[in-house]
Amino acid sequence: MAKALKTGTEARAIQRTARQSPYKMRLVIDQIRGQRVNDALAILKFSKKGAAKQIEKTLASAVANAEQAARAANTSLDVDALVITKAIVNEGPKLKRWMPAAMGRATPIAKRTSHIEIIVAEAVR
User: Which of 11, 21, 53, 61 would staple 112 via disulfide (CB 3.0–4.6 Å)?
Assistant: First the structure.
């Protein structure tokens, strides 16, 4: 599912092998890059794209990781001040399938997967 790595005032969440093509995921993630977390969650909640649900889960995980890091460091964290500093979608492994074709042949089908990485940090005021 989502792995977490915390460094300083930022937190990160990664989701590996999400079963949707990177192209479709990037259409959604481009809309939230650089946004405040609350604004990004609102965009994702009302998006008609299927990729928005997976990205919303990963973003929620990144926010939870930031809260956990702040709690572990015994510092205060304003969740409303969190900003998405980095949001990328990379290509994951392809599931290779075959479909019957004419005259006994077979044509390959590549079912694509994605790796989602979101990093959130507190905005500097």
Answer: 21
